[in-house]
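Follow-up to my post from last week.
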Amino acid sequence: MRLRSAIHLASAALALALLTFAAPAVIAADTVDPVADAKAFKKFFTDKFPKVKLEDFVNGPYSMNEDMYKQWEEKEQFPPYEFSLEMGKEMFSRPFKNGKRFEDCFPNKGIGIRQNYPYFDEKEGKVITLELALNRCREANGEPPFSYVRDEMAALTAYMAFTSRGKPFDIKIPNDPRALEAYQNGKEYFYTRRGQLNFSCATCHVQSPGERIRAEVLAPALGILNAMPIYRSEWSGMGTTSRRFTTCNSQIRGVPLTPQDDEYRNVEYYLSYVSNGLPISGPGARP
Amino acid sequence: MRNAMLKSALPLVLLIAGATSALAEGSEADFKVAYAAAEAAHKEAGTLRNQWTTTAATLAAAKKSADAGEFDQATASAKEARALAKASIFQATSEKERWKDMEIR
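User reply:
Got it. Predicted complex:
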């Protein structure tokens, strides 16, 4: 009887010990490690496209196809986003009714700062994108917000991106569990299949960059936001990051969320972070 | 004679009219049940942030048919919308873990 009790006790102790040692291993497997993610992300694309220079991934489909690259070089002589750029510059410097301007809302008067957006606001506990910051600036100065998917927002972000051209993305994740959670949620959104077509963002931009979907050549996810906003021939106009996300959702037969909902802000945070070090190339032009 | 024929036909006409009306009411009731179930499933997909455009379109088609009094078609569309909504719920639920399979590591 004593022997049986001793065996039971020893078994229980062994089980407890195993659990104690096994638990950290389980947590470690789920640990969020953005630095390792970004490294693996870049390696995946540079291994897949060994001829493409790292900084060239920001040129999207043009980096995947030699003929398209030549077309793009020619397009850049008279870029289709030029009108938007001029409009954005004018809008950015135009005073609000209260006499203040956009420059009063941003560090360095809004010039050359695009590469730092989105950032995690520790006071608010949320991701702040450039589009959101622009509209908050308007509202703080008594102006109505712009639509996130229309020309005004595209023009403003085009101008701000232009002043940051060549500067590497420098997205920071502060030592705040909420920031890591936002990053992780963005990653989850990026890889989650949705819509009746059962596509995730990764289905097109990780599994199939360089391949055609109908007439389009799909862009790689690496550096995809560096070129935003973009002029798309398909749209016959400019498109913001919000427009890109909502359109992607509806193309796969998913009901888009509201622009600047947490999910979209988080996925922008994730995608920008893993492209850290790649230069801002926006505004861009796409077929 | 003519009056007698009219008298005998009257109950038949009333019977047919009553039956048709009962049939239409039954069909409308079926539609209402099917539509409510589809709407509830679509709403649940919404809380999972994964509604499908096709569900929304099929729900709208069901409503349009019902407004035109075409309850058989309306009920069929509502049932289809429910099936689509259920599929979107399944997708959202299963993707809670499955997304990790696609992750670049």
